[in-house]
Amino acid sequence: METLYSSQYLHIYLHKTTHNTLELQWLDFVPSADFRVSMLELIRLIQQHGAKALIADNRLLRALRQADLQWSGDLIFKGLSERGGCRFAAVESLDAMNRMGITALVATVIPHTQLTSQFFSTIAEARAWATAPL
Length: 134
What we know:
Helix content is 43%, strand content 25%. With 134 residues, it is an alpha/beta fold. It has a six-stranded mixed sheet with strand order 1-2-3-4-5-6, sandwiched between helices.
C-alpha cells in the first residue's frame, strides 16, 4: 500500500493487485472547502493511476453538507465509472448523520453508473472485496 496524498483530514493510498484500487482514509470532520479540494485530488489520482476500484474508510468522517455530498457523488462516482472503474467499497461512518447521507448518495448515484457498491463494517473486508480480481 503506497501513500499518494496526505492532509490533516485525509490519506489516499494506492493498492496494486490485478488492478489499481485507491483507498480514502478519512481522519475527522472536514470543512467544505477542504473536502472539495480533496475530492478534486482524488479524481486526478483516479485518472493518473487508472483506478478500477475505490475504498472509502468513512469510520471517522462526520456529517457533510448535502451539497458537498451530491457534488462529490457526481464527480467521483460518475468520474470513476466513465474511466472504466467498476467497484466502490465503503466502511460505514461511526457518525449516524454521515452514514445516512452516504447511504442515500450511493443509492441515488451508483445506479446511474457502471459501478457495483457494497458497504462493510471493517476495512479488511472492504479491501478484500475491492482488490479481488475483477
